[in-house]
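May I ask you to review the protein record following this short note?
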Amino acid sequence: MTESTESTNRLNRLKLLIVDDEPPARKKIRTFLEAQENAPHMLISEAGNGIDALHMINEEAPDLVFLDIQMPGMTGFEVIEAVGVENMPAVVFVTAYDQYAIDAFEVQAIDYLLKPFHLERFNKSLSRALEKIETGKERPKDDMLRLLEQLTQGKKFSHRVMVKKGERYFFVKVRDIMYISAEEKYVKLHAAGETYLIRDTMSAMENRLDPALFARIHRSYIVNVDCIKEVQPWTHGDYVVLMKDGAKLSLSRRYSDRILK
């Protein structure tokens, strides 16, 4: 049995999502998938941008995503950050030449397709991805986290955050966020009188924000320092931070130096 045949035999009833802002690129991947032996049993969806991809990943829960990296508006990495690494299905990254990214993929053993790719190379990536799914090893979450950390080192901090309200996805400017609070498996953004829940961690949010503008004041709070009205002593070395919107937040001793100095 050939490698291609082994791959296609594993494709039964799998949901696949192709994400690329270029229609010819999406068509190429779809053509390669439809050339597989069990193509009639595949459920193939397409997204032409990161916002649609985010919605489809959350709503349709695909088994495998072919994810373009360089997309205007929202990159493939921003899609992963918005979905949350722990919630991402198996991923094959698709990229034009970017040696830095490719080196990072290879170090973390993350599979990728380098444009322009041919059928044989596509089948190898597909086979590897399906093997991970089949054996339950499709969740290299630590590898993915290390990859994102490596690729974002030295890059600019976020200027906007993707949020969802009802069925709509849109961006909130970071400068409009007054503070962020922890909500179990989520974080809540408080911005311009509105609140938005994002499935993320406080540590991940803290790493995305410019420390010159935002400060962690408690394990459950990150504040925009420009939105602080005053800081009042409380008890046992703790403080209360009064925000301009009237919110009162705890400032723990562990983080007090970041504000008081």
Remarks:
- The longest strand covers residues 177-183.
- The mean pLDDT is 81.
- Residues 119-135 form the longest helix (17 residues).
- The two ends are 68 Å apart (CA to CA).
